[in-house]
Amino acid sequence: MTEVIFEPGRQDIIIKREFDAPRDVVFQAFTNPELIPRWWGARRFTTTVEWMDVRHGGKWRFVSRNNEDGNEYAFRGVYHDVVAPSGTVFTFEFEHGGPGYLQLVTESFEEVDGRTQYVQVSLFQSVEDRDGWIPTDMDRGIRESMDLLADLIAGS
To answer: What tens digit of pLDDT does each residue of 24-82 get?
Structure first.
C-alpha cells in the first residue's frame, strides 16, 4: 500500500511504499529509462522517456499522454545526487507551470529483510505551491504508478 502524506502547513509531499524486492531491483526500476514507461504515470497515461541520464548533473525529461483526452504533460529535471542503490536527489519541473511546478525530490531506498522501504520527499517552494497540487487528484496517480511498479517488480 502506498502512503501519500500531505501535512497541513508543510511545503512537502511524502510518499512511502514497501516493495517485495531487494533495493537494487527497485532502484533499477526507478533509474532505467527502458522500465519507466511501464509504470510511470497513472494507468490512463502513456509515458515516453525523451532523455534520462542518471548521474550527478544528468538531465531527464518524460512526456505523459492522457489516453482518454490526448493531452500531453511534460516533466523534466536535473539529478543532483545519485548514490546507487540507496537514493537520488533531483529536481522535478512541470513544464506547463502553475503552482508547485518546481520541486526538489529526495528518494531513499532502504532494504529490510529482502524488501525495500521506499520514501520520496518532494519539497515545494512554498506551502501554497504544494497545496496547489492537492486538488489535482495527483495522489490517485501516485498510487496507481506505485501499484504498476510493484506489479512490474513482481514479474521480473
So the answer is: 999 999 999 999 999 998 899 999 999 999 999 999 999 999 999 999 999 999 999 99
* Residue owning grid cell 522535478: 92
Strands (E), 1-156: 3-5, 12-19, 45-52, 59-66, 72-83, 87-94, 102-112, 115-124
Amino acid, single-letter form, for residue 18:
E
Q: How far is CA 107 from CA 33, 37, 67, 80, in A?
A: 17, 19, 28, 12
| Amino acid in position 130 | R
Reading across the β-sheet that carries 59-66, which strands appear in turn?
3-5, 12-19, 115-124, 102-112, 87-94, 72-83, 59-66, 45-52
Q: How many CB atoms lie within 10 A of CB 105?
A: 19
Residue type for position 61: R
3-154: what CATH class? alpha beta
**What is the separation, in whole angstroms, between the first and last Cα of the chain?**
19
Segments making up each domain of the chain, as ranges: 3-154
